[in-house]
Each structure stands twice: as C-alpha cells, then as structure tokens.
Amino acid sequence: MNSSKSKICLHFPSIVRVPERELKELIVFLDNYYAEWEIIKNDKATGLPKTYKDGTVKKRYIRPPFLKLKALQSNIKNNILEKISLPSNVHGGVKKKNNITNAKKHQGKKYVLTTDLQEFFPSVKSPIVYQTFIDLGFNKQFAFYITRFVTWKGELPQGTPTSTHIANIVFLKIDNQLITFCEQHDITYTRFVDDLTFSSSQDFQHVIFDILEIVKSCGFRLSMRKTKYSGNQTITGIKVFNHKIDAPEKIIEKVEIEKQLPGEIPKYLTRYREQILKTNRKRS
C-alpha cells in the first residue's frame, strides 16, 4: 500500500472479505457491539483522583468491541493498518518494538526531554481519521468504512484492536515534521503511543519551545505537568543510564520478592527485567 494508485483502487468489502450488505447492517446496529465503562484517573504520587481546573474528576472510558465488530476490527488491523509504513521512531503498536526498544534509543544521551499527549485517543476525532485516509490516497468509500468501524461516539475508543494503529497513522504528519526538525538539530526522537521522548548529547533547551509548538500546531494537547527536561530520568517505564538501561527500583524490588516464590509460579517481572538487561548484553 505504498503507491497512491493502488490505494485509490482498493475496495473495502473485498479487502475485509465482508459483503457490503453486511457492513451496512453492522453500521446500523454498531452501538450494540460495544461495551463501555468508566475508570477514574488517579494521581500516581498521591493516589487521589485527578481533577480538571473546575474540580471535575478525570475519567477514562474503556470501550471494547465484541462479536462481529471485534472480528472486523482485527481484520482491518491485520489486512490494512499493519501494512501502512510507519517511521522507525514509532515504537508503540509496532511488531518487535515496545517500551524497552523505545527507551534504548536514548541510552547515553545527556539531555532528555519527555512529554505526554493529553487524552490522545479521545482527541483523534472521526473527521481527522477520514481526512487522514483521504490524504494517504484511499478513495472516499474506503475512508468512510475505515472511519465508521474504528471510531465510536466521534472518536477513537480505548480497548479496540485498531485504536493504537489508527492513532499512529493520524500522527504521521507530526512525526515526520518532528523527525525533520530533530535531524536538523542532532536530536534523537521516539514515540511510544502518547509518550514523546527527545534526547541529545548537546543541550537543546533553546529549541524545546519549537518542538512543543510542532505538536500543538496540529491540534494535540501536551501535559505540561509531565513535560520534563533533564538527564537521568525514566523513559516509558525504563531507567536510562549512560552505558545501560534497567527496570526502575520498584520493579527490581518486586523481582527480588519473586525469587523467593516456588518455581512453578510464573515470574513475569523477572522475565520482564531479563528482557531489559538482555539489550545491554547485545549492545556490548
């Protein structure tokens, strides 16, 4: 799906192997194929619920699909979304990449900027999704069906097989702008879903405003509370040092506890830390 000509000719029902009659029927009854519940957002430091300036408690809405819709979304992910090329800086929702590979890119860098996109999935609205696929060269029918089956209540729902992939594709325009800017200033840039990380061996504080403005110029909001510029900080849950990366102290403490457990009990955190430390051996 790299040439615009092939994209224009694609027929959505044929790609997903579902008759158009069934797709239209599914659209009519789409609300019946989603579950929905709320999760209150708590502050990691205090454990108390987060609130907006007016005192309203912040909530996250989980909206997983089921039955026919879940199967269709998995089909869309496997046969369409995963075939759209993403730049190498993207580590979330990409095969063989994760929070560890994301953090590894910044090992040995003295200056690090981390920031977080606020309400990333909910901020990706249906018109943006539709226009993104039109801009990529897909025809209107294709863009319509994609948009209709990957968004709900006008936005990307959390809990679907497709939302991370769609968010990555919508963010492509900003990714490419940031990549170009960072290459010009000798800055390493990676993104793990809604976590953006920039690092360099040289102080780049003088261009931080420009970096953040590129993101905000396309309508996305940044969490200034989570925007930090310093060395020796945690990147996507990984401690990054000059010559190695490792799990944070809380994980290491739990790994030590796991070591005391009987052998037949799965030791997930131990395996996770081993996966992190393995990258250090590879590098050496």
TrEMBL record:
<dbReference type="InterPro" id="IPR051083">
    <property type="entry name" value="GrpII_Intron_Splice-Mob/Def"/>
</dbReference>
<keyword id="KW-0695">RNA-directed DNA polymerase</keyword>
<comment type="similarity">
    <text>Belongs to the bacterial reverse transcriptase family.</text>
</comment>
<protein>
    <recommendedName>
        <fullName>RNA-directed DNA polymerase</fullName>
        <ecNumber>2.7.7.49</ecNumber>
    </recommendedName>
</protein>
<dbReference type="InterPro" id="IPR000123">
    <property type="entry name" value="Reverse_transcriptase_msDNA"/>
</dbReference>
<dbReference type="GO" id="GO:0003964">
    <property type="term" value="F:RNA-directed DNA polymerase activity"/>
</dbReference>
<keyword id="KW-0548">Nucleotidyltransferase</keyword>
<keyword id="KW-0479">Metal-binding</keyword>
<feature type="domain" description="Reverse transcriptase">
    <location>
        <begin position="1"/>
        <end position="240"/>
    </location>
</feature>
<keyword id="KW-0808">Transferase</keyword>
<dbReference type="InterPro" id="IPR000477">
    <property type="entry name" value="RT_dom"/>
</dbReference>
<keyword id="KW-0051">Antiviral defense</keyword>
<keyword id="KW-0460">Magnesium</keyword>
<dbReference type="InterPro" id="IPR043502">
    <property type="entry name" value="DNA/RNA_pol_sf"/>
</dbReference>
<dbReference type="Pfam" id="PF00078">
    <property type="entry name" value="RVT_1"/>
</dbReference>
